[in-house]
Each structure stands twice: as structure tokens, then as C-alpha cells.
Amino acid sequence: MNNRLYGNLIFELSRKGRQGYTLPRNTYGSHTDELPASLRRQAALKLPECDELTVVRHYTNLSHDNFGVNDGFYPLGSCTMKYNPVIDEEIAALEAFAALHPLQPADTCQHALGLYYALQQSLAELTGMKEFTLNPCAGAHGELTGLMVIRAYHQSRGDEARTKVLIPDSAHGTNPASAAVCGLEVVEVKSGPDGLVDVADLERLISEQGPSIAAMMMTNPNTLGIFEHDIPLITQMVHRCGALMYYDGANLNPLLGVCRPGDMGFDVMHVNLHKTFSTPHGGGGPGSGPVGVREGLEPFLPTPRVVERAGTYSVETGDYEQSLGSVGCFFGNFGVMVRAYAYILSLGRENVRMVGPLATLNANYVKESLRDVYELPIGGLCKHEFVFDGLKDKSTGVTTMDVAKRLLDYGYHAPTIYFPLLFHESLMIEPTENESLDTLDAFIQVMRRIADEAKTDPERVKAAPLTTPIGRVDDVLAARQPVVTFKQMSHE
Amino acid sequence: MAKVMEGLRYSESHEYVRVEGNYGFVGITDYAQHALGNVVYVDMPEVGDEVTAGEEFGAVESVKAASDLISPVSGTVVGVNEALEDEPELVNKDAFENWIIKVELSDASELDALMDAKAYTDYTEKL
Amino acid sequence: MYKYFPHTEEDLQLMLRRVGVRSLDDLYADIPEAVRFRREYNLPEAMSEVELRQLFSEVSRSMQNAPLTVFAGAGVYDHYAPSVVQHIIGRSEFLTSYTPYQAEVSQGTLHYIFEYQSMMAELTGMDVSNASMYDGATATAEAALMAFASAKKADTVLLSGTLDPKVARVVETYAKYHGIRIGKVAARDGVTDREDLSRRLQAGGIAGVIVQAPNYYGIVEDFSGLSDEVHAQKALLVINSVAADLAVLKTPAEWGADIAVGDAQSLGIPMSFGGPGLGYMCCTEKLIRKMPGRIVGLTRDNRGQRAFVLTLQAREQHIRRQKATSNICSNQSLMALYVTVYMSLMGPKGLREAAELSYGGAHYLCEQLQQTGYFRPCYDQPYLNEFCMRYDGDVDALQAGCADEGFMAGVKLDEHTVMFAVTEKRTRDEIDDFVDTIKQIREEQA
């Protein structure tokens, strides 16, 4: 139960004179006032002053207002909320990794460089790419890096005119945003009624704009959870016009053990280690978004690079003439890589291959068990996830938002809602391979109960959630006059 | 049902212009504010900026959507509705009363290409 | 089946029947055979937990003298973090949750991010903060994009020559692809050449100026008058700082910055071979809607209670797509929790005491190194806890020798220059041992 006192802001628990730390005795004296006054902080530093137990209780209480994978089923579509193995945390916390300085001499961190290299190679094997950089810190960061690889490639051939990217209308919002940050213009490709890329529309766009197209970005299976089975044809069309294929690895999970982006004809891709390789999402980060390239594109990868020669690893930051540059100072989110590598080693080749099929089975099982009460706009087999377009019976006025909020009352995290934008009432469910039949059955039962409630007591569903620490929030109030710090709040 | 006001000129991207002499008051239509929902922010240009017919000059944001503002006319911005800085919700209260920018028109003939109230009513009914 | 797969044979049969397929393979009937992967992965076989632990403990043992006693920084610092920090981080309600989309079951995350934003705004003196970014380098690159987007016609961002070259390289990379021109301002005597900067500003077309305080060489530069000069050209001033240093140094707000960015690894986050860290970004209230990244705001729920929620989302990629302020769609949330718990424990007094200890240790080390006769300071400029020394011997040999004895002897800047850093974690004894080690190495070389 949440304790009201400790649930205040830490600033409100502060009392002047309390402290929550101990430091070694200072034998040097306080000398920062030797710095010229013009270089010193003048403003008071109004941070909280708290004792240790107050801090522990405050954050422990806050954690009770949260919901993680360890608390319950988290079918958040497109986010691949897998179980985060505890052993991976144990290994990442080893001092041998956590206490390393990124610039220490290479012969004192061979184990860490070796891990980077081995993970890079494992990802190459799992995806059919030639080489990976692990430096990008997240999926979107990987997309940007990958697009930079593509631009660097075209520029190396003197083909400066390629400034457009083809992106399906069902794509994740990060795809067009990454393209824009990379200085590329977005050309949207339509989806057909089957939810797949409309090949005729693609053909038209290519014939009209071919020489100005740098790449096509795709996720496969797409955001509807459907495999783009025309992919061999699509890659052929795009390659023929001189552009490259980019694979958004957000939906890689269902393909483990089944097929590889490299074999589908993709040239550049990113992997989300925090999705497919089970590292914790941490409330929104840190993630890791390694970028892989096919043979021939390695020269364009960013620096620093970890290089292996005769079993010895070194770091090269030097001048690779064709490298795109750098997207970070060091090796990206190394701590995340340790977890991902431990996960791959734990599963081993025999279990990795089961990930995709079991995730796909779970998703199809839930879909088939609910499609009589929820609107399934596109039938057939899905992969790791699928999208309902709200309740089948729209007459009750109960929306996807209401269903999502009601699920919270029953102890489930909500699915992804109102994405993809192709449907008005999108409800996107991704169960992952870690969920048992019992969990899925219980969830199905609750989803059906909510569909019933929508008919018998719609007002109750619209008022949900009723059992959570807070009710529905006023988004408009927050956005009109944003208050984003304690200081601003005190001025209110 | 969304209101349409007589005497104004309308664009397909749901901006209106109310002409007074050589000046045009540009805002979004009642239809547009309905579609957006609660407006939380209006991103406006500065006085002195040039706007071009058919080009973006700002944006209107609601909590879950954002829509670019496309100028129906060309000219120089001679005024912005500062009340919207603190009370963007005025756009929801009365979209026609609460214009967004005042433009000194550089080419009044552009107005001919815009719809009148009747044409705009027909246009929105088909959407 | 495997420990992470709960499917029994009966479950599988039941589920396949419900789906209407005969085998797991049939779930992929829509995938053309030509792109199916039909062989074994070339990966090791599954390892038991016992084997996994063994492997990694062998790996750790193979690392001699691990971990090193670090006398280096250059962006990553070996600070002390109270035990409570790691304990709170380990709570699975924080660790295993995702971005707080559903505010009703994410108040824990939203609440601490609001506290984080409040603390960073306080530390930098700025009005507002976002919910954090990947790291200091990318936050700086995002600031360059923000300056560029805020400018009407200006297309150039100036980088001080005393900006960390690793950060500069990231900014230049982003700029190159985004279509921003970069101007490099000269450095003189370890500080920004203000005359060169003025000249470039007056030439026009400048959208933003990025400087670092303390700068890459550890020097606390005097930026008096800079913000007026930058603002006169309608450009934005961006100051990059190591977060912990701002407890005692003049804040970006006090220098008149529009955007404050940098790395906050110095506030309770392990070095972890350079990541994950945390990039912070704070700015003036006026710029808040141009700021990239997630932002948590205050609001009320339908029961009248105080609540926190992700806000200003109309700037973001999931709504704006290619017109978003940035492509970033996450924050380093867990790392923000490190920083928040750390600052809650340390408070204003603890941060200042840590800075005093670091300052004292660094100046003590600098003196001791000079007394060996092998080193002299490169610059006669004020510094906090990081400084450059001219070494009269072979820097590589020095660093290798020190590593053999368990010390990381600074970061090599060139054949004759080493940059050292000291934090509150380094005791006077460690400093003395380190200096003795250097003397021994020299004696052996002689």
C-alpha cells in the first residue's frame, strides 16, 4: 500500500540539515573558493536534504506505483516486453565490467573488447549481416546511424542526388523522424487492404523518383504483425533503382530461428537489444540499437571500432576515410551488451531458434481466442503481434482507450493503443514467448469480461481505472501550461 | 456540426482568411478545431515574417495531434494574436473570432483561388 | 522446455489446434521458402547458469590488476555512489517497466523523472529539463539541431576548439547529414580564442555556439560577455558541462546560456566502459517546445489528485513523424533514476563536499607530480578536478607501466601530454602510491 507521506516529492520530504551520505574525511581543506568568484556558482543549490531511510522509503514507495514485467503480463505491442533474466543482471554488475573506464589501455580490458566483438559476431550470424557496430544507444539511434551508413555509401559513389527514403505508411514514427534528422526527405508508400506494402504504389514511386531514392525502410513483420511476403520482389525493385534496403529491427523477435533480414535482401539494419535480446527496458531506457551491414558496407560504419587481430582486440578511432563519423564517444551502452550476450549464451543455438515460433504461437493463440468479440481488421496468421480495431460491437461507445484502462483494473498492463494509425481504434497485442498458456488464458478471460462489461455496464468501463493509485489524468492541463520542475510548481 | 461563416475565404487545409482592406486575418476553421480537439499550443510566426500562399507558417497542437498551419495568402505578418500564447483554448471557444495572424496581402488575386462559405461547406460535407 | 519457455507438450498441441495449424513451422507458411533459414545457427550450445557464472568469473580473473585505480576522466569519472543507489535501481518495478505511457500504473517512473527534471534544472540553473537523452555527446548534437531549427536563416553552428574532440566529432557527424555547417573556433592557451569567436560571429549566419565548461582540458574558462555577443547575433548559446561540476561552478544559466547539455554519468552512474550514461538537456522556458526528448509534466487526475504525465508529446516522432523535433523516442530513464537517487542522498552539501575532495585531490596530485621533476602543468589556468601535464618521457610506457601496477595513468592527449582526473573516491594514500609508482617506473627505466 502506498504511504502518502513518502509518496510526496523528495523535495517536500527535505529538511535542512539532514544528509544521506558519508564521504572520506577531507584532509585537503575546502579550496574551491580559490577559484575566481566570477567562475563560481552564485545561486543557492536547492536540492533535497534527506536522511538515508527517508530516501529508501520514498523510492521504494514510488516503485509500488509502477508496473513492470515482473509484476504481471505486459502485452505492449511493438515493445517486446520479455522477461529480463536475473542472471544477466548479476553478470552485468560484475566489477570486471561495471568498473571499467572506456579509455583504459586495451590490454587491461581485453575481456570487455572481446565481449563486444563476440556479441557483434553473434548478431551477424543471427541476422545474416556481415558486421555490426554496437555503438548506437537505442533503436531510433540505430535507425539514424543506419541511414547515415546509406548516405555515406551513396556519397562514396558520387551519387549525391539520392535524398529520399521510401517508408510505408504503417511504419514506426521513428522511421520518418530518423530520416528527417539524417537530412532525407520522406516518401510514403501506401499499404494495401491486406495491410501489406502496396507493390503497385511502390512501383509507381520507383519509376517516378528512382534516381533520387536513397533507401527504403521496412520492418518485417510489419507493425500489424504481418509478414511482408513480397519482400524478395520489393528488395529486387529497390535494388534495381540503385537504392538500399533498411531493416527496422523492432519486430525481429518472431524471426529468430525462422529467417534472417540478410537473407531477405536487406543491406543495413538495426537490432533492439532491449527487445529481442531481453535486456530490461528500465522505464524507457537505456536500450541498445546495434547496426549491421552486408558485405561491402563495413567501411561506412562509425568509429570507434573494436578490431580483432590474431586473438587480440584493439580500439580504433583513427581515420577511416569512408566512415560516417561517430554517433557516440565510446562503445554505446556497454552494460546493456553484457546482458544481451549473457542471454544469447544462456539460450544457446538450440533455444534461440525457439524464440520466434513460440512468440508467434502465443500471439496467434490470443488473436484466435478473442477475434469473435474484438474487431480483427486483417485475418490470417500474424507473427509476434496483431492489431484489433477496437471492440466488435461499437454501439456501446466503449473505446480502445476504455478497454486499455479497464485492463489496468484487472492487473494487466495495457496493450499499445492508437498505433498503428491505419485504424481508428488500434489495440496492438504482443505476448512474447515467455508467457504461459495459463497467463494467456487468464488474459483472454479478462478481455472477454471487458467486452461483456462494455455491453452490460459501459459507464463502468469508461470510468476505468478505478483500482490504480491515480485515475485518468488531465493531459490538456499538463500540455497547456507545462509545469515540469518543482521550482515551477512552487511558483504556481 | 461545425460552423462556417459567410464572407470569409477558405482553403482545403481548413484555414480561413477574413479580408479587411489590404489586410487578411488568418485562422483555422471551426471544422479544424473540432477535428483537432483541445488545442494546447499555437506555434505562430513573428511580426515581420513573410508568409507564402500554400506554405507552412506555424502549427496548432492538441494533446495527441499536431497540424501544420498553411497560409491561404501571401504577404507580411503584421500582427499575431498574442492572446493565444496564454490561452490557446480560445481557438476551441471561437475559431473565427480568434484569428492567428494578420497579414498585409501582397497579392489580393490569390483570394480568388480560395473557397467561399458555400463551397467550403460542400467540401467539408464530403470529407 | 527451456527455463524461459513455459510451453508443455500438451500446451503446444492445444494452442496449435486453437490457431488451426499442425506445427510451429506452419505458423510461417506465408514466408517464401527462399528466405527461410534452415540450418543451425553457428553459435555455442546453451550454457547452464553454473557454466555461465564460471565463464564470466574466468573472464574477470583474466583481467590483471582489475579494476584499475583510475586517475583519468575525459568525460567518464570514477565517482563514489552510495549503496542505496544500486539497491533502488535493482527494484524490478523500475527495471522491468517500459516508457510510462499508461500514467495510472507508471506514477513511480513519472514521479522520479519529474524529480530528475527538477534537480537538473536546479543544478544547471535553467528553467526546464527534459527526461534525459542517450549521453552528453548526443545531447550536444541535439542542441545543435535545436539551434539550427530555431534559427530563421542561419545555418552554421560554432564549436569551441576546447570542446571534447569526441563530442565535437559526434556533433559534426549529426551536422553533416542534417545539413548544418560547422565552424571550429580556435583554442589558445587551452581556452576558447574569443577574438576568433567574435570574428566568426560577426561574419553572420550563426545559429548557435557550443562551448564547454570546464573545457576538455579541465580548465574553467571565463565566458563573461559571451552570451551578449552570441545573442546579439540572434544565435543560441549552448554550454556543455560535466553535471557534478555545476555544484560549485558558475552555472550555464549564470553564463546566460539558452541550452545546457552534458553528461551526468558523474552523478552516481558506474563507468561501465563508457555506457550507459546519461545525457542531460535543460533550456530556457521559451525554448521548451523546441526541446527534443520526453518531458514529464504536472497535472491532476479525475479524482482531483496530483499526478504526473508525459507531456508536450505533439513535438515527438509518434505524432509529428518527419516533422518531429528529433527522432529520439526514449530516454535513459533508469539512468535518470541513478542520478535522482544519488542527488537525493547527497543533497547540496554532499555534492559540494565531493567537489571539494575532488578539487583537493586533483591539486594535491598536480603538486606531487610536479615534485617528481618529470611533469609540468600545460596551462596556468584555474581547474576543478582535471588537468593536463607535460611529461618529459614516453607517455605510452608510463601508462603501460602504471597499468601493470594497477593504475590508470590519465588519458594521453599527444606524445607528451597526459590529462589526469581525481575524484572524491581517490584517497590521499592512493595518490601517494600512484606518484611513487611513477617514480619507480622512471627509476627502472633509468
**Distance from first to last alpha carbon of chain B:** 13 Å
Poorly predicted ranges of chain B: none
Structural class of chain B: alpha+beta
CATH superfamily of the largest domain in chain A: Type I PLP-dependent aspartate aminotransferase-like (Major domain)
CA-based shape of chain A? globular
How many DSSP E strands of chain B? 9
Task: Kindly report the average pLDDT value of chain B.
Answer: 93
Structural class of chain A: alpha/beta
Strand order of the largest sheet of chain B: 1-2-3-9-8-5
Low-pLDDT runs of chain A: none
Q: Going by CATH, what is the homologous superfamily of chain B?
A: RNA polymerase II/Efflux pump adaptor protein, barrel-sandwich hybrid domain
Count of the domains of chain A: 3
Shape of chain B: globular
Largest interface: A-C, 196 and 205 residues
Main attributes of the structure:
heterotrimer, A: alpha/beta, Aspartate Aminotransferase, domain 2, Aspartate Aminotransferase, domain 1, 3 domains, 7-stranded mixed β-sheet, 37% helix, B: alpha+beta, OB fold (Dihydrolipoamide Acetyltransferase, E2P), 3-stranded antiparallel β-sheet, globular
